[in-house]
Structures are given as C-alpha cells and as structure tokens.
C-alpha cells in the first residue's frame, strides 16, 4: 500500500505510538536497578548505559563490526548470543532509535515503525500466533486498543515495519518450529519489512533462517576496554541520584572495581558478560566494595542483596505483608523455578503459581500473614527476580537465576535421579552443574558417580556426560581423589581430539568442550594436537570458540616469525630462561614454560609449582624429584641427553599429556610412562620395536610419533601391540 493511502487517523496514532515506544523502551533493565527501589525513584535512559557490542559472523569469524553497524547493512538478521549478552537491550535500542528517527527523519531506521515482539508473549495466545493487529497486545502496550482498524497491516504492507522478535530460546524446542513457520508466513506476506530475530547461540543454528536469506551474527563478549566503559557508565548513570558525599564514595568504588577487574582473571571473565557486569556493579556498590570470588558467590550475593538487605535497610513492606526472611523467600522462588524447569517452561499462569505457593504455606508458618496472591505479588515487586510477561502470567527476569534456584530445589528434594536422567539435555546443563554447587560432599559424590555410570551405559551421550562431570569439578571444593582420577582419565581420552573424526564428534557436544581445550601456550601451533583443537573450535563456532581459534592463529604467526628449524628434524619447543624464572614472553599471567639443566630443586619451587605447565629438560642429570613436585605439568620436552637409557625414576605425572624426547640415542626403555597420563608421545631417535611395544602399559596414549625407515620396521606388528594408538612415523608429531 502506498504511503499516500495512510489516513489522518493513522498519522495521529503513529505520532502517539512512536512517542510511547520511545519512552517505554528507553530504559535500563539491568539486574538490581529497580526504579521502585532506587534512591531517587527515577528511571535511567537506555542511552546512558547502552554499549554497541562487537560481533562474530558466519562460522564464528570476527566481523570487525559492531552490532549496530551489522544491523544497518541488512533487512533480515538473526542475532545470536549467550545468556545475558545484551540481545534484548539491542532490540530495545533499535526500537527507540526507530521511534526517534521517524520523528526527526534521521538515522538508518527513520523509515521504520518498530514492533517489539517478545516470543514469550507470542506463545501465550490460545488461538494461534498473532496477526499484525495483535502485535501491540503481544508487547503489552496499554495504547493497543487506540490503534485504528487495520493500521498495523497498512504499515507492514507498505514495507515500513521493523519487527523485533526477541527470545526464540524462551520457548521449548518443539514450539520453535511453529514460531519459524509463523515467521515464514510474515515474510511471505510482508517481504519489504525489516526483521531482527534473537536467540541464545545454542538454541538455534546460525543457518536457522537462511531459507529466507537472513544474515546471522553473534554478539561478542565485552573485551577489556568494553567492560571498563560499561562499569564507568554504570557508575555515572547512578551518580545523579546521590548527594555529593555519596557521589564521592561512588567514585571511589568505581575506581576500585575497575582496578579489580584488571587484576583478577575471574572478575574479568564475569565482566565480559553485560548481565554479570551490571550485577558486579550492583553487588560491589551494595556491599561497600566487597566482591565475590566466583560466579557462584555472585549469585549468592545477589540473592542476599535483593531478597532481604535492601528492604531491611529501608524498613520497606508491601501488599500488607511485613518483610520476611531470606530463606522463606528462597523457598517460594525455588519451588516456582523447579516447577518451570521440570515442565520446560519459562513462565506460568498466575492461578497455577498461586496454587504452587499455597502448597508450601503449611510448612512455613512465618508466611501465614499473607495469602498466595499477596506473597507472589510481594516477591514480584520486592525481589527483582520475577516479571510478568503478560497480565496473567509470571516468570523469572533471567533464566540464569531460574536454573540456580531450580538446582537448589532439586538437591534439597534429593531428585538426583531426575538430574541424571536429564543430564544429556542442553537445557538442563546449567541446572545439573549448579546442583553440584548446592550439594553436600556426599551428595556431590553420588552425582559424580551417577554421571560416570550413565556415561558407560549411554555411548551416544558419553562424551557430553564425561565433559559435564569434568566441568562440575569447579563447583565442588573437595572431591574424592578416586573420583577425580576417574574423571581425569576419561577427560584425557577425549581432550585433546586426536583425529578429524574425534574433533567433529566433540564439536557436537558444543561450547562445554572449549573450557577443557589446551591453550596454545607451550604448543607448536602446527602440531597435530593444535590442528585438531582448532578444527573442533571452528565447528563449534561462536564467540568463545573464535577466541580460541584466534589465539592459535596468533601463536602460529609468532611461531613462524621466530622459529629457525633445521631441515633435518624439528627442534624441540622451549623458552630459554636463565634459571627457574618466568619466561620473558610470559611475564604476564598464564602458565609458565621452564627449562631445566640439573636435578637441584630451586628454593622457590613451591611457589612456582602452582603455575608451571610446561618444562624443557636438557642435560645428563635427571630432575625427577623436581618434576614430581609439579602437579600441573602438562607438557615435557626431554632433549640432548645422550646418556639417558630409561625413565625409571620418572614420577607419576597424572596430568602429563604431551611428551617429546629428542637427542637421546641410548634410550631403550619407556615402561615408566605407564605411570603418567601421556596422550601424545614423540620420540627420536627410534628406541626400538621392543621399547615401543612396551608402551601398551601407557593406557592413555593415543598418538605415537617416531622416525621410521620404510621396509625396516614392522609397523603392522606395532599396531597390533598398541591397539587404539595412532602411529605417526617420520616424527610427524611435535610436542
């Protein structure tokens, strides 16, 4: 329909609608900043905190473009990102920009009328997915009934619509196909409009909408500079609500937090996610500069801060309910979260939610002062954890906290069988991991054993379950040594991948794999191990995978620039240092590579032992005692030791993965390697068929490289002696 056919009533409504959209969505909705709880009881404009994030494009390749630049170049875009990466904020910013652009005839969105369509709202309609007339109802805009009859259709027919469809991941997998079909119908009916769709990266593949020529990109994490800017803007945004003394104190907290994020790797990781970065700012402010040591502590601090401390400090009550303690509130929230998780939902109708709360009241006499209705209304208003996606429904503001609370409920109810049964479901991954954090020692051991036992019975999901068990080690402060050894043994069989088939199989597991992949530190970036790591990351895709690929590419560039290898055989990798000191190129944080030339232990060995991952041993005196005191040792190079005949004194090195021996012509006995966790072994010169066949005792060995003259060595016989080990003659493996 031509623009000239727009009626006067359309023009009048559009002016009111655009003004309403600009004011409604120009607000910050970061965790912990509640306009009803803020000191000045005011709103913060979105522009005060909005950060235009960098992006990754097809196959996780960096685009060198911000999200705003990428969106400006196309009319159909799928935006993917991690939980809390800023997807909804991006769409709200687009809606506000379009509304302002229409009124000022400026910006690339100035010809568009924005429609914000949260997927949660789409699925609430009982008579099918909405037609354009119902778009404003989906967004819960109170002026929906004021629109002229047929106005939305006229906007879309003219190609003036900007459809912002947010949160494909917030409905079940079975419902996503229905959403996709509905979107296809819209594209057929209104092909000239612009469409932006968001989803979590693991919810839909990047080609999910390729049939309709959608471009796809992924929101990148905040880099160091971006996190610093975000923290600075957050403090500037909240400073206006405070008196001069409070503002001065806030500046001190800002500077302290900026310094802490630079100094602490754990905080840097958390600050790379916009949601967690905002939560860091809130918790740091509310706790007067005290910061948690990990993500788990951050969630605990948020619960304490939002459920009790704010209202206690302000003597606040609501809905005729006197503020009650933290534990009863957590019980109500986790009961609701667990029901949603078990039923695969992100929100629930109020009647059922009231019934869930009513079932808990008899066991919590401190709650008898309120009814289910008033208690739920209190939690929604005061906790900051709940929201109403529609007038008659309730759900969690962010699914991260739903998972955290659902895990707590599962552990308290000892629903370990259910957790183990759902452990292969990516939608339950966070819940299972957080359950380990909530569990007591005996309970966590039961979960570990259950995961490992199920992995043995379930070959199709074995890799995922073993990796999930390994990831859970971070959540448990004390693990039985036998269980840890069992997990590390399984992990050594998976990581790193040794063949293209293994790399591709690991990639099917997804991002869970990435945290276990070795870094390029101490590796030849052209070796088989490195190539398979890169292959896995490239097939996984996404921001974290691309960062790993980038690090290997940079290592390869640096390696090529400085390496001077003779053509006869490759030189062993090492970082030359004067003695036991940090290698110059690793003076910053990270694993250390050290060179040994004697058996004497340095006086600072205990300090160094916490960071040493890679060692080069040269010379005649074996440093066996020193090696035994390096629990994190992963890579060992033994070079230029002509008198070495065996490794009999080598201690058990369970974390050792890569061993290269070169320039040891007398070496003829490798049986001691059975005590290690070595996966990659390269030995030159060839120690002989008997020595190599004896490696059958090294049960974790998967790749063996050695020099071999064609026709003078029984390769087939060695393969029979070492089943499951890939033989790479001619020293094809370099540590």
UniProtKB/TrEMBL annotation:
<dbReference type="InterPro" id="IPR027417">
    <property type="entry name" value="P-loop_NTPase"/>
</dbReference>
<protein>
    <submittedName>
        <fullName>NACHT domain-containing protein</fullName>
    </submittedName>
</protein>
<dbReference type="InterPro" id="IPR007111">
    <property type="entry name" value="NACHT_NTPase"/>
</dbReference>
<dbReference type="Pfam" id="PF05729">
    <property type="entry name" value="NACHT"/>
</dbReference>
<feature type="domain" description="NACHT">
    <location>
        <begin position="75"/>
        <end position="412"/>
    </location>
</feature>
């Amino acid at each position: 329909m031509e623009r000239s056919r727009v009626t006067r009533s359309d023009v009048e409504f559009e002016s009111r609608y655009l003004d309403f959209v600009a004011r409604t969505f120009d607000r910050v909705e970061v965790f912990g900043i509640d306009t009803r709880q803020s000191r000045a009881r005011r709103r913060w404009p979105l522009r005060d905190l909005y950060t235009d994030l960098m992006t990754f494009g097809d196959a996780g390749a960096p685009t060198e473009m911000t999200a705003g630049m990428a969106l400006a170049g196309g009319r159909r875009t799928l935006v993917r990102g991690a939980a809390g990466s800023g997807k909804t904020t991006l769409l709200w910013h687009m809606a506000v920009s379009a509304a302002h652009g229409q009124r000022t005839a400026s910006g690339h969105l100035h010809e568009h009328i924005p429609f914000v369509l949260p997927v949660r709202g789409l699925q609430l309609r009982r008579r099918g997915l909405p037609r354009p007339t119902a778009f404003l109802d989906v967004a819960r805009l109170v002026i929906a009934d004021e629109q002229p009859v047929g106005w939305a259709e006229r906007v879309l027919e003219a190609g003036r619509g900007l459809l912002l469809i947010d949160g494909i991941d917030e409905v079940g997998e079975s419902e996503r196909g229905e959403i996709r079909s509905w979107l296809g119908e819209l594209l057929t009916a209104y092909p000239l409009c612009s469409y932006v769709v968001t989803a979590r990266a693991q919810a839909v593949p990047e080609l999910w909408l390729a049939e309709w020529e959608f471009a796809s990109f992924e929101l990148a994490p905040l880099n160091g500079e971006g996190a610093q800017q975000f923290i600075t803007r957050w403090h500037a945004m909240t400073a206006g609500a405070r008196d001069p003394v409070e503002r001065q104190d806030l500046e001190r907290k800002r500077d302290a937090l900026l310094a802490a994020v630079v100094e602490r790797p754990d905080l840097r990781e958390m600050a790379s996610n916009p949601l967690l970065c905002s939560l860091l700012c809130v918790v740091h402010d509310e706790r007067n500069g005290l910061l948690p040591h990990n993500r788990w502590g951050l969630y605990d601090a948020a619960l304490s801060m939002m459920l009790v401390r704010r209202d206690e400090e302000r003597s606040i009550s609501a809905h005729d309910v006197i503020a009650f303690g933290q534990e009863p509130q957590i019980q109500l929230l986790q009961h609701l979260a667990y029901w949603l998780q078990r039923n695969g939902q992100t929100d629930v109708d109020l009647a059922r939610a009231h019934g869930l709360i009513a079932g808990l009241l008899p066991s919590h006499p401190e709650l008898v002062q309120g009814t289910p209705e008033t208690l739920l209304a209190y939690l929604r208003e005061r906790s900051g954890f709940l929201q109403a996606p529609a007038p008659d429904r309730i759900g969690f503001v962010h699914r991260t906290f739903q998972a955290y609370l659902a895990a707590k409920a599962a552990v308290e109810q000892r629903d370990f069988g259910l957790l183990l049964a759902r452990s292969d479901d990516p939608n339950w991954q966070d819940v299972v991991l957080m359950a380990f954090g909530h569990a007591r020692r005996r309970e966590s051991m039961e979960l570990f054993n259950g995961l490992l036992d199920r992995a043995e019975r379930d070959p199709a999901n074995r890799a995922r379950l073993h990796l999930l068990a390994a990831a859970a080690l971070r959540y448990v402060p004390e693990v039985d040594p036998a269980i840890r050894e069992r997990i590390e043994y399984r992990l050594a069989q998976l990581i790193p991948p040794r063949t293209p088939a293994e790399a591709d199989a690991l990639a099917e597991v997804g991002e869970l794999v990435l945290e276990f992949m070795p870094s390029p530190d101490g590796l030849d970036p052209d070796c088989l191990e490195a190539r398979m790591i890169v292959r896995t990351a490239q097939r996984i895709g996404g921001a974290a995978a691309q960062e790993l690929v980038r690090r290997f590419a940079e290592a390869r560039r640096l390696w090529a620039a400085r390496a001077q290898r003779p053509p006869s055989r490759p030189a062993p990798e090492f970082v030359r240092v004067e003695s036991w000191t940090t290698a110059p190129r690793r003076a910053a944080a990270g694993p250390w590579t050290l060179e040994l030339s004697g058996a004497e232990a340095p006086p600072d060995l205990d300090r160094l032992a916490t960071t040493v991952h890679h060692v080069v041993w040269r010379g005649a005196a074996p440093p066996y005692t020193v090696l035994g005191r390096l629990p994190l040792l992963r890579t060992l190079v033994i070079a230029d030791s002509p008198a070495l005949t065996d490794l009999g004194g080598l201690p058990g090195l369970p974390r050792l993965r890569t061993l290269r021996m070169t320039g040891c012509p007398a070496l003829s006995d490798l049986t001691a390697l059975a005590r290690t966790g070595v996966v990659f072994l390269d030995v030159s010169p060839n120690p002989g068929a008997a020595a190599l066949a004896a490696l059958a005792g090294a049960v974790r060995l998967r790749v063996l490289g050695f020099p071999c003259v064609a026709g003078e060595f029984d390769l087939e016989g060695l393969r029979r002696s070492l089943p499951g080990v890939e033989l790479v003659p001619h020293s094809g493996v370099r540590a």
